[in-house]
Amino acid sequence: MALRKKCPVCGSRKWHKEPSSGLITCSEGHVLQNYRNETNEAEDFVPHAMRKRTLKSSRKKKEKLSKADPLLYHGPRAHYHYFQCLQLIFRKQVAALTRLWDLPAEYETVCRDLWVLHLGLLPSPPSAEPYHHAREQQGDRPPEARVTSLQTPRPTQTPTEGASDSEDEGRKQAADHSSSSSESSDAESDPEMAALMREASETSSSEDEDAREKPPQPDSAAKRTGKHRTYSKYDAPVNTIAVLVLACWTLRLPVVYNDFVKVIEAYELPYLDPVRRGIIPSSMTAHLTKQTVQALSPHYAPDVLALHTLVSRLAKLMQTSYGIWTPELNAAPVLWRVVRDLGGTPVLYTLTKTISHTLSLTLSLHYSLAPKLEKARQSDAERYHQFDNVPPEVSLVAAAIVVLRLVYGLDGSPRVPNEKEDPACSLPRLQEYLSYVKELNADQVRGKDALFSAALPLHVTDMTDGTLDVYISFCERALLGKSDIPGEYFPIREGDSGHENSAAPIRESTSRRNVPPTALHQVSDTGDLRPGEAFKIFSARDVFGALPGEYQLVVDKAAGWVGVSEECMCAVVERLERRLIRWWDSVRRKERRASRGEDEDR
Description:
Layout: E1 15-17, E2 24-26, H1 76-101, H2 106-120, H3 130-138, H4 143-151, H5 159-189, H6 191-213, H7 220-223, H8 238-250, H9 257-265, H10 282-285, H11 290-296, H12 304-322, H13 331-341, H14 346-359, H15 392-408, H16 430-446, H17 449-452, H18 465-480, H19 485-489, H20 549-562, H21 566-601
Antiparallel strand pairs: 1-2
Helix pairs in contact: 2-8, 5-6, 8-12, 13-15, 14-15, 15-20, 15-21, 16-20, 20-21
């Protein structure tokens, strides 16, 4: 170890550094001369930094395997496949309805054309099939290129094409640079132009910064996430029934909405649970997700009023978009069906027809498609049937009930005509008519439609042997569909059972008896009320009010035939009654004015 230097003054070898000044002094306090104290403290960061290089491992990480079923379709392809299944169901519905009702061959053609128009009028119509369309656009490229192009659809380029593109870009940049330099030189020569260009550049730069800072707004399609339904009500399977109804109107077939509901509830028209019952083949159901299966599988028959809303909307859109006019209801046979169901006679048919004409009932699917009403005054605006938005058969049934109320009252007080020319003399007496309506209701409960209707209560213990056999056959058709599971497990030949034909067959149609002539109204000179006298209007909004038994019986019968609720039927009847009273008041005012004019002339 080298010896320390001696202090030149005192010869001491003990040195120490003062922390405050940084000088080196000996034990006696003498300062060491010619000593340079340097500091190496860095105030700023230097560009030098330590880098640590690591060798990457050649081992590949395991990719997470997706548990999704590759057969299931999603996105636009699933949407297109949904309409494929819906169209297959629609074609089977057309074939089944043509066979059930013995419709002409033109019905299928009309249904096909209306289905195409319906798809074009949807809020989100199905586009071209995405998968096959992409394959046609890609040609015979390898699968990797197809996947890449599906994700980022860019046209591929060869090296020569890329080089030529780069050369073109270079030329373009040079041209832009030359043009910008010329513009800058021109701007320097003109100070006003330079100031205007400077303001424009500042404005554009500020707009770019605002656009850069502003987050992108999500699409309307992106907003519809979460618990929103994938398919709207216009994409639902009930729209196939709406197209079938509109096709019947186009051919002027005398059908009503409840006719479709009955064949649906009887599982004779393919609509309920098509996936479970095998209506859609397994090759198509293999690509359906759980949500798509639920959308394709309605569990109940459509409501009459909801179905009428869809049909009237479709008819209005066809009129406004394509100029296709849907004809009016074939009212004559439908009105006769209404009168027959209510147990009426041809006289009731004639009176109902007269009342319907007086009340200007709408016979079109939408009130805007009906002819305009006659103006009462020249200052009146164009008037439509704005409140006639119920099915036309409901209006006809309500008109028939109005006639029955004018003739019989149906309020607990009897009405008796006092003139032989009164049409009420050609109608049966009230008690005979009500007993006949009760018989019709009893026949309806014992009929075939009661077994398949979800609205009529029926217990198994009340069934006969024939009714029970028909009900078991119906359950087999509804629950099993096309699969013959009992035949596979119990291969018994048909016809071996001895008691199969022993039961009495079920009554499919009600027997109609003629009302005897002795039950017709007789002319009376007593003080009883006359038909149409002391007319009472029952408010449909009175939730605590109860209808008379006679009126309730007729309303229940009418509402069951058209497939609407009793409240709806009472509301329509009330509206027609008030409209009839307004018409009668206007007629009386005209008569009074005419009589005043005659008196003045005299």
